[in-house]
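In the previous chapter we treated chains in isolation. Here, by contrast, the input contains three separate entities that must be folded as one system, with a combined length of 734 residues.
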Amino acid sequence: MRELFPLLLQGTLVTIEIAACATLLAIVMAFVATAAKLAPWTPLRWLGNAYVEIFRGTSLLVQLFWFFFVLPLPPFRIEMTPFTVAIVGLGLHYGAYGSEILRGALRSVPGGQFEAALALNMSPLSRMRRIILPQAMINALPPATNLMIELLKGTSLVSLITLSDLTFRARQLDEATFKTTEIFVLTLVIYFVLAQILVALMRHFERRVSHGIIQRAVR
Amino acid sequence: MTVKTDLDIPTPPHADLSVEKPMKRDDPASVLVPQASTQDEPMVRFAGVTKRYGALTVLDALDLEIGRNEKVAIIGPSGSGKSTLLRVLMTLDPLTDGMIEVDGEPLTHMRKNGVLVPASLKHLRRVRSKIGMVFQSFNLFPHMTALANTIEAPMQVLGLSRKEATERARDLLSLVGLEDKCNHYPSQLSGGQQQRVAIARALAMRPKVMLFDEVTSALDPELCGEVLNVIRRLGSEHNLTMLMVTHQMGFAREFADRVCFFSQGKIIEQGPPQQFFSAPRHERTQQFLRAVKEAV
Amino acid sequence: MNSFFDLHYAEQILPALLRASMYTIFITLIGFAIALVLGLVLAVLRRSPIKPLARTVGFIVEFIRSTPLLIQVYVLFYVLPVYGITMSALTAGTVGIALHYACYTSEVYRAGLNGVARGQWEAACALSLSPWRTYSGVILPQAIRPVIPALGNYLVAMFKDTPVLSAITVVELMQQAKNIGSETFRYLEPITLAGIFFLLISVSFAHLVRRLEYSLRLP
């Protein structure tokens, strides 16, 4: 069992790296898409909607394969390293879901907040930045946590475009040593542990950020 | 308690600069004429204001003038358009027709080459800065302490430094009796306390007109008093034009300079509280007041 | 060879792709049927008064939900044969995806069951209804109706996850597209067509689910 660890650990680090970078891109795309969908300019709104529908409506693996196989060829001729493909594919895919979460979170902020900010003559930008977004972000944390776990699970697919993540290493080891059971059980456990760590981190973050807002029995 | 008149609003140069309350409330001559110290222009003027939601007319060609430093109470049955009146003044909802003027300037429109056109956002924000509003559901920012709530807009909109804004905020919070709750979050405050913070927050922007939209309706009866006391003190110690939608008849009777009865988008009757409550002229008013008395 | 999208070529490969898509649909339908039933069983077990049972089932569901489908499918296809359980790729894939999504549907059912008012359980008890009758006659009809849209969404999600099975050599749509591409080195048309297929089906199905949600809301 001991000789399995180093290679699996290497794979785990790659998985974490990919997940972290893809999460950042997904967050950016979520904001960009939501802003586009709310823009006063119709072509921009259409673009935002198209992005979300396409990337939510197709399979993650299809998207990864498309970036990996189709883009390098004519007529696109865009060469990307497998790592870049992974980040872009995962980031765009989960960014589309993220934008739906963000939209829901913005809608969950009570209308009275908009009105109070308007009554205080705050500019729309100030209002969004200081009042609405902070509250929306807090509401978005639970579904965002779930989405991040989905992203973590999604990273396993990059093994199919030759990236040496945890899943890839597991298959590699299996073909080399045939200790099939141990390898795959260990792999499952590692993913599970990663997911639990993620949830714990997000819960801690959630508690810190909403410490004043938590409804205590008030009188 | 020494009261600092934080709310000294710069009055136009040709006005009388006296600070104390100019007229007694039960002087009948003073009432129907807007209680302006020297200014003849009303503070707020609704001209033919109409608000429709589809087929439903909520405000019906309303004409109303509020004088400087006048305290007007607006009462009436639900759905009569009372809150909508405040909301269109605060520009929360757009008008269907008509015009509103504040402090001599058009609010919802602006003069461009001598013609009245719908106001630009910039113009709207400039004139709107003279109005402040307190809501029925308080609408405090839950992610900020009482102090942070009160300094937010002065810093963001008026550009005050944190030090200046905090000083102003502390003064206002102690005005409403909550100086020891500065660092509490809204979730840690009672309804009455939250509403008082909301009042301090609105006052921090130094408005000339304060709107109170059923500010005690969401409060337990025992908490109403503290809020009404703050409003009473505001009225007697500062130069503020106040427009209140309320169900508190006793308070309206004792505090307001004028009471307006609203029904179906129109003002049915208005007058000084003494005359209004003891000898209402219209049938509808009498009906309403009778029903209210029975409920008490 | 440098044209943008060769419609003629696309036309040529369409029959092969459609044949493969039959597998995709087959896997989705059978897999989801299993997931629907199994999910309900899991949800009921989690409410069992036998605490160790409830907790174990709870843990298993949580574990499967937090780990990638790909690894789970690998386990079924590569690990089980070590212990004498061999399955065809198609079977392993269908069972794997069904198990994975059963854990999602069990969460949906749980929410539905929790949404049924306490009083219903108490009334059934007062009427001395057997557990079977309680569930089938009283509880389930009320628990399932509100969650049908959520279940529908998971059907779409499962459909979009079928390409993962290509990793264990199931020749579903995505794998077929890749095969065609690798034979002719023109990946653009096959993968794009596969993508369009997924997009069309998932968008129209999502639309159906929304309409279903709307019509269910009326009473």
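Chain A is about 75% helix and 0% strand. Helices of chain A lie at 4-37, 42-57, 60-70, 82-107, 111-119, 124-154, 166-177, 180-209. Compare these points with the single-chain example from earlier in the chapter.
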